[in-house]
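Dock 1-deoxynojirimycin; give full complex structure.
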Amino acid sequence: MEPKIFLIYSFLIFGYIQAEDDVNNKAFPDDFLFGTATASYQVEGAWNEDGKGENIWDRLTHTRSSLISDGSTGDVACDSYHKYKEDVALVKELGSQHYRFSLSWSRILPNGTADVVNLAGVTYYRNLIKELKDNNIEPLVTLYHWDLPQVFQDQGGWPDEFIVDKFADYARVCFELFGSDVKYWLTFNEPKQTCLGGYADGSKAPALQNPGVAEYKCTHNVLKSHAKAWHIYDQEFRATQNGKVSITIDTSWYEPDSNSAQDEEATERKRMFEFGWYIHPIFIGDYPEVMKTRIAARSTAEGLSESRLPTFTSEEVAYIRGTHDFLGLNTYSTSMVKAIDDLPIGQTSFYNDVSVNEYQRSDWETAASGWLKIVPWGMRKLLNWISKTFNDPPILITENGVSDYGDVDDTVRVNYYRDYLSNVRSAMEDGANVIGYTAWSLMDNFEWYAGYTEKFGLYKVDFNSPNRTRTPKTSAAYYKKVIQTRCLVDSCV
Ligand code: NOJ
């Protein structure tokens, strides 16, 4: 295709092509929050210190190291358990308004249950929160970022309903212990990864594979747990603590392969399965209709007497609906979607239930993680779609970023942040109510099955040094300037 025709074609299909000249030059509003994020297992280390209990990532990395690409563990990770003051100094150096981190359930409650509270674990988080507050940094706290106490996995984990009350007890303990200083809570980080990865395709701890069944049961319990925690906060803590509680849901943007009715419909179905699965029950009520009808029909065809998608009673629908004070959104990439014939009845899985052809274009750039194609315009489309479909919620982007192999001169990351933030700013001009942005990640850390081979940090961490020395990358300087000037280019209007 002629280059010029290709450009016009791309403009029509994708909206526009990102180039430096296209970077949005409107300043971000003064009250827009800029921050960075980490998660307990990925940075803390001290896996068995001071009374911490074992969690599912401890167990997985210690017993199935072949699943981790470099065979590594989070036993020491960034050693943030001992170096939290340095971490806060880095956040401060960037000028971030908030720092998102997660609590390790088994560090606070070593047996998982609320009858034994580990004072050393509580002290660690109290110190971290105090250090943040003393430096005028708002803590944004995730209760669950994938590290279930192993003892609860031994009893069945998230697909088993007993977990709902256990999570609710844990949430209450955290609100009680830390709530006077925490104004933003997230119950779950990316529950789809917990459920699909943990129990269906085995790509996350506990690495079980019961596809087409366990991910739906898991999600059912996660949604109930989230709602219960929100109601506990609402009834017992909101009046005195005055904070906000929500959930962080992850999705890519899904773009139709063509504007045919079939591709458009398949794409919207994909969005509803991937994102609607969680946001719909919480923001609208119950699972999306398309999930209910498709999974029920396929279950019947499989000879089952009831749908593999569990059903909420009308009381449960009402209990879960409205349990949000904002929306936490994690997003990194985009996929194309093409309609296909429904996949044959037989092997059950979430992906067979959706039945679409999902792919990423080979001309999209990628740096380290194979799944993370760099497609900045997907951010704008996603924010606009969420606003339109789910009644314009206040959106706090709780993660966005890119991986590479750890170079301090990380131009790929600078460009990624610039171009994705540009699309955030444009979506705000379109009318999306985006209240903040959180870069993943403050520093290089344990990237799950990729171990330490893929790096997401604004700061490099030397994992060969016992000091775990932190060094700013070029992207840290860029992000700092953006936070300071509220502007992505040299000067804004
Ligand atoms: C999502 C997860 O929340 C985080 O733990 C992970 O490191 C990043 N995305 C990058 O994959």
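Observed: Confidence is low (pLDDT under 50) at residues 1-18.
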